[in-house]
Amino acid sequence: MIHKGSESEAGKWLGTDQRVVALGVARMADAIGNSFLIVVMPLYIASESVTGNFLGFSESLITGLVLGLFGLVTSAFQPLAGRLSDRLGKRQLLVTVGLALFTIVNLCYIMADTYLGLVIIRAFQGMAAALTITASLALVSELSQPADRGHNMGVYNFFRLVGFGIGPLGSGILIDSGPYMLPVVGQIDGFVAAFLLAAAGAFVSTILVALLVRDPEETKPSRESMSIRLWARAPDRWLDPIFTLGIATFVMSMGFALLTSIEPEINRRLSQGAFLFSVEFSILIGALAIVQPLAGNMSDRYGRKRFIVIGLLGLAPVTLMQGLVTAPWQMILARGLQGISAAMVFAPALALAGDLSDKKQVGAQLSVLSVSFALGISFGTILSGYAIRFGFLAPFAAGAVFALLGSFLVQTQVPGVRQRKKADRELAPDRP
Known about the structure:
Layout (H helix, E strand, L loop, with lengths): L3 H7 L1 E2 L2 E2 H29 L12 H30 L2 H21 L3 H28 L6 H29 L2 E3 L3 E3 L1 H23 L28 H16 L6 H8 L3 H29 L1 H19 L5 H29 L5 H26 L6 H20 L3 E3 L7 E3 L3
Antiparallel strand pairs: 1-2, 3-4, 5-6
């Protein structure tokens, strides 16, 4: 952990350690550029700019592979990247390297004119993301004290989610408004402009982290073997607490994606178009981003575990509600409430995992939650696409059951800790 003097020496922005804010702003700029690709990539593959025959796959299958490959590669490499940051004790360096690689990879899309080229570039982008995600989460945790870790995680995630929400909206405008005339370069189409802007976002992030963020002096290289456990060592529990928090994060993010693969069914049921669907999808991200700093700060004061349990319990009815709505405004309301409930899970879970982590294994052990988040998004899409055949309510009922199960596991398998206002700021058990 970081000593008391370290935070004051770093200074504060918006009441938060300036290094945490700088990391959050850097991830926001990076997230804007990366989320651009969610909208741009399917259109780019469908355009005449990309050709080829990759293993005989159809265009739609190539699109799904390119979009999904990022999450798969990132999830696979995050534990390794987290362990590398533990071994080196150089979190800031790995964040900077990851963002620099992002800059290069985003520029490479401009030169990709085959399906195979896109697949390779996307895989390298996933590796770069693994370095950035795990090292930045570990750095936020180590730049925090137990009494403000929830607040810092909430602020960090606020900026990141704002960037993720802005990107898709801006990319559509950028594509439709092209071509553009640039000095020296000349005319470029909307695709090239999107890739350039994504690279610029990653480059700005790289500079911000390089100039404004430093590892705390207490961060040292670790020679211990990587320790990610599934089973608890305590006799009164059967699941490892950090693994259980990963399950909670998985359940939370799974609920985000239930709408993604059943958009046509939702639009038919609610008699709406693509715009209202985008509002329904985005309102969750907006509510999650706005409420997270508050939820993280409250978890510092009143205990993290109780917030996570209440948030998961809240996810059950609001997820089920989405399978019962008959009007767009009802879906918007349900998704907004889902975002508020998810905020009570996300930042407190990351903070509690940081509290419980071995201080020499922070990078590797926090990767459990970041991997769970990515896998939850993927599983939610698959679940809703399969379950919709059993009726419109089925995917959302399944999501509600998972939320209840997650709440039960956190309540029974995770030790409660809360912060008491003591001079030494030691962790103390939660009161019943």
